[in-house]
Amino acid sequence: MTHSTVQPLYDTFNRAALRFERGEGVWLFTDKGERYLDFAAGVAVNSLGHSHPHLVNALTSQAEKLWHVSNLYEIPGQEKLGKRLVDATFADKVFFTNSGAEAIECAIKTARRYHYVNGHPERYRIVTFEGAFHGRTLATIAAGGQAKYLEGFGPKVEGFDQVPFGDEKALKAAITPETAAILIEPVQGEGGLRVASEDSLRSLRKLCDENGLLLILDEVQSGVGRTGKLFAHEWAGITPDIVAIAKGIGGGFPMGACLATAEAAKGMTSGVHGTTFGGNPLAMAVGNAVLDLILADGFLEHVRDISLLFKQGLASIADRYPDVVAEVRGRGLLTGIKCVVPNTEFVQALHDEHLLSVAAGDNAVRLLPPLIITEDEARQGLARIEAACERLVAANKQKLA
Ligand SMILES: *Cc1c(COP(=O)(O)O)cnc(C)c1O
Q1: 220 a known binding residue?
Q2: Minimal-distance CA residue to ligand 1 atom 11
Q3: Which domain holds residue 367?
Q4: Do the annotations mark residue 133 as ligand-binding?
């Protein structure tokens, strides 16, 4: 046995040296008893914070009854959550998955099958945007188009045409008789919190209508209340054809879904797609519990109020620390800053202040508190962010001295 010195885990993650034992609301506690304010929220997953009693109860009471049966059988929890998602959105049909990438895969397959059953198998290409992130499967890295995620994984999956974010001319030029759909995040998460303007989303809708294309939205990160509406596209008042969701809908339980109109989903007939785990009773119990809270009276209003307070606080910090913060970005609680200093240094300075955040592309840092955050906790977060800026200013002075 000579391999025993090799670490057993793949080296794919650059992990911070933190081990959390327990979570409560917006707080995480390490094995050393230290407390962190969690503005990473498991990358926008812990929408209701940690150990929310309603979620814990939903999961444990389901766990005592039934975990998994497969999609060979009817699953009442799926029917219930599917109906609730349909009632609350543009969608008529729902397919449950385990992750965001699988929800996007389902969205891509749905769009291609739509044109296929319409007698246009040649229409399979999908236009995407630079800086996009759609997941890490072979098709979703092709859709995201980022070289760093494609390198070394063989030929890029065929059928994705990428255009610069916000370049309408390039977008129009990319549409050909082979185009099936346009795929976009209403707010880029990992790409650096760039927001697609309401106007640009409305003109995307128009462009799709004029060219017989389906509009697919990736709301894996922006959905389920994160921006202060149930879905970010509601701000623009548009009706998409297909929307992929995940992260927030499980509140920490791995799950996702692809939502579509009946028309868009008409090619997804018996046997053409499937999943073993997707939509199992445990996931559905939690997903339903998450919706109980997010759809409750006043919840999204609370998210919008907190977002406003938080954004004003960030803007004030940006004014006072122009050598650290370049710009405040994002929408609702899918927010953060574009840094002047390297974003990794900013994440570390926040870490030193016991506040967790997530680096993003374009030298940005994401601040993604659980949606249940109180005003007082938001102010505590702002104080820590300000203290982190002080640290960085002091460190810079030392470098110059
Ligand atoms: C996280 C994310 C994905 C991928 O989700 P996974 O659950 O990691 O597969 C896709 N799109 C967006 C916008 C995301 O933020």
Answers
A1: yes
A2: 134
A3: 20-52+298-400
A4: yes
- Where does a domain end: 232, 260, 294? 294
Determine if residue 374 is labeled as part of a ligand binding site: no
Which CATH number characterizes residue 361's domain? 3.90.1150.10
Q: CB–CB of 224/47 below 8 Å?
A: yes
253-267: per-residue pLDDT in tens? 999 999 999 999 999
**Given this model, what pLDDT does residue 5 score?**
82
Distance (Å, whole) CA 194 – CA 262: 31
Is residue 7 in a domain?
Answer: no
Beta-carbon-side half-sphere exposure of residue 53 (alpha carbons within 13 Å): 0
Q: Which residues, listed in sequence order, are joined to residue 38 by a DSSP beta bridge?
A: 356
Question: Which of 294, 329, 349 lies at the terminal end of a domain, its last residue?
Answer: 294
Indicate yes or no: pTM above 0.85: yes
What lines the ligand 1 site, CB under 6 Å? 99-101, 104, 133-135, 185, 189-190, 218, 220-221, 246-247
Nearest to 287 by CA among 244, 243, 253, 333: 253
Take residue 162 and report the two structure tokens written for it: 């990428």
